[in-house]
C-alpha cells in the first residue's frame, strides 16, 4: 500500500467510535494488570470496537511511566484483531515524544495522539513548532488533541495540511468554534468529537465523523448503537440512546466528595467496567475511587442501560 493510500485508510479509520481505554491497576495501584487489560480489549473488539486510543486521559496518561505506556500500547496491538486501529497518547518534551513514538511504532501502533499541552507558559508559535517537529519525527499518523484555547484555530488549520496529521480530537464544548474550524481548515483530516456521546448529534451535523467514548469501556454495544443511529441519520433513535447514556456522562462530570470538576470521570468508567464483568481495577493518584453514594447511582444507571432495548436502524 502506498504512503498516500495508507494515510487515507488511516484517516478513514477515525470515522468511528474511538474507545479511549482505561487501564486496570492492582489494588495498591503499583502494577498494570496486563492480562486483565488484554482480556478487556479482546472483549471490546468482539463487541465491535475497532478504533482504540491507549494512554489517553481515561487511561490515566499522566500516572504512567513511559515503559508502562509502551507495554499498554503493545497489549492493545496484541489483544485486538487485524481490523483494529491503535493510537497511543504522547506528551511532554519533544525528546520524550520522539522516544514514545518510536516505541509505539515498534509495538505495532498506527498513530500517536499528542496530549493537550500542559506547559504553563506556552506560546502559539512555539506550539506550532512543537507539532511540526513531532510530525517530522515520526512516520506514524498524528492526532491533534484540543482540550482548551491553547491550541488555536490558526494552529489547527495549519497542521491540517501536514500529511501525517490524520485526525483532530476536538474536546471543547464550543460548537460554534468547532464549526468554524472545520470550515476554515484546508487540509484533509478526520474531525473527531472529543467530548463523547452527549455531543454526538450536534458535532456530527457540524462535521465530526467520529467521537470518543469512555463509557464504551463497559457499554460498547450502547455507544456503537448510538454511532450507527447517527451515521444513518436516525435522529429519533440516536436521541433515545443519548438520553439513556446522559445520566452516566453527567455523573462523570461531577466532583465526588471533593471540589474539582470531573474528578469522577475515570472512577465511573472503572466501576462501570467492574459492574459489566470487565476488570476496572483501582485508580492511581491523583484520582480516587467513587464514594458509596455515587457508586450506588452508577449501579442504578447501569442497570437501566443493561435492561433497555437499543433498537435498530431500519
TrEMBL record:
Gene3D superfamilies (UniProt xref): Aldolase class I
Binding residue positions for pyruvate: 58
Parts of the chain that traverse the membrane: none
Organism superkingdom: Archaea
Catalytic-site annotation from UniProt: 145 (proton donor/acceptor), 169 (schiff-base intermediate with substrate)
Listed InterPro entries: Aldolase_TIM (IPR013785), DapA-like (IPR002220)
PANTHER family xref list: 5-DEHYDRO-4-DEOXYGLUCARATE DEHYDRATASE 2-RELATED (PTHR12128:SF19), DIHYDRODIPICOLINATE SYNTHASE (PTHR12128)
The protein's name in its UniProt record: 4-hydroxy-tetrahydrodipicolinate synthase
Species of origin: Natrinema salaciae
